[in-house]
Design goal:
The chain is of the alpha/beta class. It folds into three domains: 56 residues, no CATH class; 230 residues, no CATH class; 77 residues, no CATH class. The chain is built from 18 helices and seven strands. The protein has a four-stranded mixed β-sheet with strand order 2-1-3-5. It has a three-stranded mixed β-sheet with strand order 4-7-6. Helix 17 links the parallel strand 6 and strand 7. Helix 10 crosses helix 14 and helix 11 packs parallel to helix 18. It holds the Pfam family Branch.
Length: 451
């Protein structure tokens, strides 16, 4: 009896939960298992998540981590996303780190920025590279810009078609501005030798950078010495036959090679029999201050003029456009460009100009007239030629005729009875190579040293 009363008292003073467990033993075991298993799962999840998060953060490159945090901070303030793991120990570590990205941005910004400033100075130095042409120009001939000077300034392996196309492509625009003076291109069409080379050497001496030299000759005898101004000036040449269009093909070849140098602005055609009547500064000033080209073109009746026209040249060339003139010309860059680019009139001459039609006397005068560039042309040649003797070739001066008086007479625009003259001041004259000795001494003392 006493034992039952004590048990009853213990049950009365037992906690409600224990009392519930004692009353429902089956429920007690199941609920206890659920509570314990849930607690264990939560604990394991928290510990595992912390370990994984810590190892992941440690595996990331610090620079990338800083950049990622900086991007997250600057693009959006997603405080909600880190809010979930606030109760987990690892997140507190990133949280202070996130608040400190303000210093990293300044460090990241300079790192990409310095590279651009570094190229900038490099570009500046590159833009100042144009001066190098100056020493090159003053140290020798500029000539063909695509060839190294040591290889021979005017040598290349282009065909005539490639050469003309290349020259034409360079002429459409003004090209890059260069701090070099414009030059006169002296183009020598010779048959094999330069008997007046010593005279021309004196003519060019001391004026490097104001001229370029181009020589068309299959073989130049004797070959110029390496100290000569003619060294390395021979262009790729072909055989030239007098009276055929090969003469004009050679002239266009000379023009095209000279046009490859953008600093050449005036172009003079010369032969091995030409001598200068003035010094180079005078010739240079005369040409550079002129606004015209110098191509003689005349409408001459009779068999030696209009009689040479071929009716098969129609319709490209009409009889009213037919002209005749001296082979020796001087032209500006614009006209030289048109001559080299001509794909209309030149092919007609190649097909239909045969003796007594001579391309070197008719092509350029007819082309200039047909292209209506007369306003840009002085309609005369700067080369003094004596046609008073008649015939197919001009008169030549022999040794006995060469004296200071004759040269002064040529300089003053002297005329010969029966010769066609148009006034103006001749710059060159044609003389017989046999008179070279007196010309060298006379010209040097009378005209080359004076303007």
């Amino acid at each position: 009896m006493k034992g039952q009363q004590q048990q009853h008292q213990q049950e009365e003073f037992a906690p409600p939960l224990l009392r519930l467990l004692l009353v429902f033993p089956a429920i007690n075991s199941q609920l206890l298992k659920l509570i314990l298993s849930g607690f264990l799962l939560i604990t394991l999840g928290v510990i595992g998540g912390g370990i994984i998060t810590t190892s992941y953060l440690n595996s990331i490159n610090p620079a990338v981590l800083i950049q990622l945090r900086y991007n997250i901070l600057s693009t959006a303030p997603p405080s909600p996303s880190p809010a979930a793991p606030l109760n987990i120990p690892p997140p507190p570590t990133p949280t202070p780190t996130i608040s400190s990205p303000s210093p990293p941005p300044p460090m990241l910004a300079p790192s990409p920025l310095p590279p651009p400033p570094t190229p900038a100075p490099t570009t500046t130095t590159t833009t100042t590279i144009p001066p190098p042409p100056m020493p090159h120009m003053q140290g020798g001939l500029m000539n063909n810009v695509m060839i190294e000077p040591s290889m021979g300034a005017n040598m290349h392996d282009m065909t005539d078609e490639e050469l003309l196309r290349k020259a034409s492509s360079m002429l459409r625009g003004k090209g890059p501005e260069r701090r070099v003076p414009p030059k006169v291109a002296f183009m020598f069409l010779v048959r094999g030798s330069l008997p007046f080379a010593p005279l021309w050497e004196k003519f060019f001496k001391g004026h490097k950078g104001l001229y370029s030299i181009y020589v068309h000759a299959q073989t130049l005898h004797p070959p110029p010495d390496h100290t000569s101004v003619f060294h390395g000036t021979t262009i790729p040449s072909k055989a030239v036959q007098w009276g055929s269009m090969s003469m004009m093909e050679a002239e266009r070849r000379l023009l095209a090679n000279a046009l490859l140098d953008s600093s050449n602005q005036r172009f003079v055609l010369l032969s091995e029999a030409c001598i200068p009547l003035y010094n180079l500064p005078s010739v240079y000033s005369y040409l550079m201050n002129s606004t015209q080209s110098f191509v003689g073109m005349y409408d001459i009746p009779g068999p030696t003029g209009r009689g040479r026209y071929n009716k098969r040249m129609r319709p490209q060339i009409e009889p009213r456009q037919w002209r005749k003139g001296s082979q020796w010309f001087e032209m500006d860059r614009a006209l030289a460009a048109e001559v080299v680019s001509d794909g209309v009139y030149f092919p007609v001459f190649q097909r239909h100009c045969r003796p007594p039609c001579y391309g070197d006397e008719h092509y350029l005068p007819t082309f200039v007239n047909a292209r209506s560039v007369g306003g840009r042309n002085a309609n005369r040649s700067l080369t003094w030629v004596d046609w008073s003797k008649g015939g197919a070739h001009p008169a030549r001066f022999v040794r006995q005729q060469v004296n200071p008086g004759m040269l002064a007479w040529m300089r003053n625009g002297g005329t010969v009875i029966g010769a066609r003259t148009t006034g103006g001041t001749p710059q060159c004259a044609t003389c017989s190579p046999g008179s070279s000795c007196p010309i060298l001494s006379t010209a040097s003392s009378c005209m080359l040293l004076k303007s």
